[in-house]
């Protein structure tokens, strides 16, 4: 990594939604808590407290399954207005240290504190001070990772959760990388990890020894990026005005949909919600995506990109319905439908604290 090392912090609130609920309701403190939809409405877990995680409860898990794992689980409906208010407190504290704050969501952000408003030369002390100020102002805990780049800082923040602080000094980067499994690489999930293991790559550092053509056959265009990360090299700057790259809306249904007309009507409704969000933010979109989850929980997405960007609800709906024809939805019961737009253009960044979050699995 040429030049003087940067000092990057990744700060992540601990079990954010659940922690806010436990803070505000003394009856929930020390109990397993899940924030999400009810089991009766086919809801899913949006966040789980650490007490709930001890039972195997995780985000994106169906609430019914979470209750089977932990019968004493307290399920609380989400209150996003309250979470946004707390997030704004947290982000204001982060910006008291540096203007270079890149929010990733309501509960996590990157900071570049190479030069900072506190005049503190040690990033460790900036992170420690931020944790203390957040605790004092909100009553909530967070974890922080300090490293020379974003990739390593994010790994470090999750190293000793909850309430952790992990520092990877430049001279510790190589020993740290030697300890990591291949899944630690950015963008490597279970499917990609299986592909890498099939060519003999078990650990992160094994990527360095792989022949490029073999790596390309396994992971395609990700090959060069993974090879760079495997050397601990991540040049991406902290971007204070990071815009959303997509807007979406989705619904999980209490009863599986099996009528084509009903599915089309639902997609049109979701498309109108997305178009309203685009209009509110003065944005246009080139790509329309739908998400379909079947009764057996298998999920597919389909996308269409047009050279001309739009925020017209009827056009987005028409494209979404056309994409539905490219799925098995007409022949299989559907549990969830979603509509999203990507390739956004327009003036000004989208606010990170949006109701319309990019959907994904």
Please tag this protein with its features.
12 helices, Alpha-Beta Plaits, Dna Ligase, domain 1, 5-stranded mixed beta sheet, disordered C terminus, 3 domains, 361 residues, globular, DNA polymerase, domain 1, alpha+beta, 4-stranded antiparallel beta sheet, 12 strands
Compact overview of the structure:
The protein has 361 residues and is an alpha+beta fold. It contains twelve helices and twelve strands.
Could you walk me through the main structural features you see in this protein, from its secondary elements to its overall organization?
With 361 residues, the chain is α+β, with helices and mostly antiparallel strands. It has three domains: 169 residues, Reverse transcriptase/Diguanylate cyclase domain (Alpha-Beta Plaits, 2-Layer Sandwich), CATH 3.30.70; 51 residues, 5' to 3' exonuclease, C-terminal subdomain (DNA polymerase, domain 1, Orthogonal Bundle); 101 residues, DNA polymerase, Y-family, little finger domain (Dna Ligase, domain 1, 2-Layer Sandwich), CATH 3.30.1490.100. Helix content is 34%, strand content 24%. The strands form three sheets. A five-stranded mixed β-sheet has the order 5-6-1-7-8. Helix 4 runs antiparallel to helix 5 and helix 11 runs antiparallel to helix 12. The longest helix is centred in the last third of the chain and has 21 residues. The protein is globular. It starts with 7 loop residues before the first strand and ends in a 15-residue tail after the last strand. The C terminus is likely disordered.
């Amino acid at each position: 990594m040429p030049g003087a090392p940067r000092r990057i912090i990744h700060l992540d609130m601990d079990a954010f939604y659940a922690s806010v609920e436990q803070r505000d309701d003394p009856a929930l403190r020390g109990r397993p808590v899940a924030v999400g939809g009810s089991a009766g409405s086919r809801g899913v877990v949006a966040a789980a407290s650490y007490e709930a995680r001890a039972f195997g409860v995780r985000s994106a898990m169906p609430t019914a399954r979470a209750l089977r794992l932990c019968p004493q689980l307290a399920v609380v409906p989400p209150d996003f207005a309250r979470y946004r208010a707390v997030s704004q407190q947290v982000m204001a504290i982060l910006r008291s240290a540096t203007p270079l704050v890149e929010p990733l969501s309501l509960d996590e952000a990157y900071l570049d504190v190479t030069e900072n408003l506190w005049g503190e030369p040690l990033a460790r002390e900036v992170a420690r001070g931020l944790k203390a100020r957040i605790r004092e102002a909100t009553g909530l805990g967070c974890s922080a990772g300090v490293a020379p780049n974003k990739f390593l800082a994010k790994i470090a923040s999750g190293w000793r959760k909850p309430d952790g602080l992990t520092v990877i000094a430049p001279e510790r980067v190589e020993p740290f990388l030697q300890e990591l499994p291949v899944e630690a690489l950015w963008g490597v999930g279970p499917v990609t990890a299986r592909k890498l293991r099939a060519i003999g790559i078990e650990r992160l550092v094994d990527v360095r020894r792989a022949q490029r053509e073999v790596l390309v056959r396994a992971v395609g265009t990700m090959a060069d990026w993974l090879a760079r990360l495997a050397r601990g090299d991540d040049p991406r700057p902290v971007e204070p005005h990071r815009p959303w790259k997509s807007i979406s809306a989705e619904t999980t249904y209490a009863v599986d949909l099996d009528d084509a007309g009903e599915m089309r009507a639902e997609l049109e409704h979701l498309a109108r919600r997305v178009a309203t969000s685009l209009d509110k933010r003065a944005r246009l979109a080139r790509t329309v995506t739908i998400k379909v989850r079947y009764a057996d929980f298998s999920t597919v997405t389909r996308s269409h990109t047009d050279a001309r960007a739009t925020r017209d609800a009827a056009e987005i709906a028409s494209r979404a319905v056309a994409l539905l024809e490219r799925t098995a939805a007409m022949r299989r019961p559907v549990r969830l439908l979603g509509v999203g737009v990507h390739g956004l253009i327009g003036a000004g960044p989208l606010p990170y604290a949006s109701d319309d979050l990019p959907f994904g699995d």
